[in-house]
Amino acid sequence: MVLRKFKTDRTIPSHTHPDANKWAYVLSGDGEESDVTYDRRYAVPSAQRQPPGPHMARTEVASLNTFDGPPTVV
Q1: Residue 20 has what pLDDT?
Q2: CATH of region 2-67
Q3: Strand-pair partners of 12
Q4: For the chain, how are helix, strand and coil distributed in percent, rounded to 5?
Q5: Of 6, 7, 23, 63, which sits with the fewest C-beta atoms within 10 Å of its C-beta?
Q6: Could you say which DSSP state residue 51 is in?
Q7: Contact present, 51 and 38 (Cβ < 8 Å)
């Protein structure tokens, strides 16, 4: 598990985790990942099989990320 925090307007380039599946639980903030919008209006944090990106924080974003294997980045 990884607790991830990004400041407003931060963008992470597209990437993959070839040795693991990754799920993101949005805890707070507004973001966009591969044209999928995540925001704090969800009563329960959303859980999505996370696409390869890019990931952009519209506001400050906090998310909990889980992996089912090593989180190697390519």
Answers
A1: 86
A2: 2.60.120.10
A3: 55
A4: 0, 45, 55
A5: 7
A6: P
A7: no
The domain ranges of the chain are: 2-67
Instruction: Report the distance separating Cα 20 and Cα 66, nearest Å.
Output: 9
What 8-state DSSP symbol labels residue 65? E
pTM: 0.72
Confidence bin at 51 (pLDDT 50/70/90)? low
List the structure tokens of 51. 């696409």
Q: Is 2 within 8 Å of 64 (Cβ atoms)?
A: yes
Res. 43 pLDDT band, cuts 50 70 90: very low
CA of residue 46 relative to chain centroid, distance: 10
Higher pLDDT, 42 or 40: 40
15-30 tens-digit pLDDT: 888 888 888 788 889 8
Find out whether the peptide bond into 54 is cis, omega within 30 degrees of 0: yes
